[in-house]
Amino acid sequence: MFRIGLVGYGFGGRYFHAPLLSSLEGCRLAGVVTRSEERRKELAADYPGTPVFDSVDGLIDSGVDGIVLSVPPGARFDLIKHTLERGIPTVSDKPFALNLSDATVLADLSRKLEVPLTAYMNRRWDSDFLTVEKLLASGELGEIRRFYSGIESFSPENKGNPTGGGLLRDLGSHLVDQAVRLFGPVETVYARVDEMPFDRDLNDAFFLILNHRNGISSHINGFMMQHAPGHRFKVDGMKGCFIIDGLDIQTEQAIEGKTPASRDIRWGVEPEYRWGYIRREEAKTGYPSCTGAWQEFYRLFVQAVREKGPLPVSLEEILEVTAILDACLVSSRDKMVIAL
User: Fold this and answer.
1) CATH class given for the domain over 123-292+323-339
2) pTM of the predicted protein model
3) Superfamily of domain 2-121+298-313
4) Which of 73, 211, 263, 266 registers the highest number of CB atoms within 10 A of its CB?
């Protein structure tokens, strides 16, 4: 069994990591680091008998083949550096650094020590994103002119990620990663990032225009005070437009306490009423959603560590996204187009 440890059992650790790790064939959740009595009780109820530790070193010393860091952004840099120096293959929540300079330090350390490091970009395996990938590969939409991607909600409790990075680094990491994965390198960016009034380093809304080297323009939107959320994806092609709304169902399933191994649900399968559709002038045709598969990230991570192969998200890809996010902040501050 591949023994993997989890650091942090807050919302992310409990709902976005533990369900996947505990259900992955050939993998065992070897222990969790949390000092919170409340979270220890939750862990005991969710995964009875799972060892719990006060420190990262305690978890590592117990014997693990890999480690997952689900901690606040401001704490990630030092923890990643420590786990790499201990020789433990590491997965970090994104972003694993709050700027390109810090991200480069960690990437260089990973390469120097030859210890795998990657970021948890699970939304590469969202049902809606996989559907867009499939459509683009088929050519059914024809030449693509514009790509729109957004996640909006009315979440007044959101404080722009007060532990570091703001909404742009958090949600924006996923959305930019998806756009680059679909359309390749970005030449220029123009951005509007809304600063929080109580802290200019934080933000709770952004709008980005990424101009890709291949001529396609990605328009990316994140907003946590939206009463009427827009489309999740809108892909404009010369032969048709694909539109899909709502968020991938895996989020709901995980929060309900389900896992990919649960027998009472079909993990990642969207009901027909949540499918997107292709629009050609006035005609609308439903288009079946692909099955979401967040567990694929960890399957590929374990395979990469065992076989010394490619990671599910490479360091080069992480650095590219981080550079784009840095440029977006400069663009918003200086009100100008930034070339990468």
Assistant:
1) alpha beta
2) 0.95
3) NAD(P)-binding Rossmann-like Domain (3.40.50.720)
4) 73
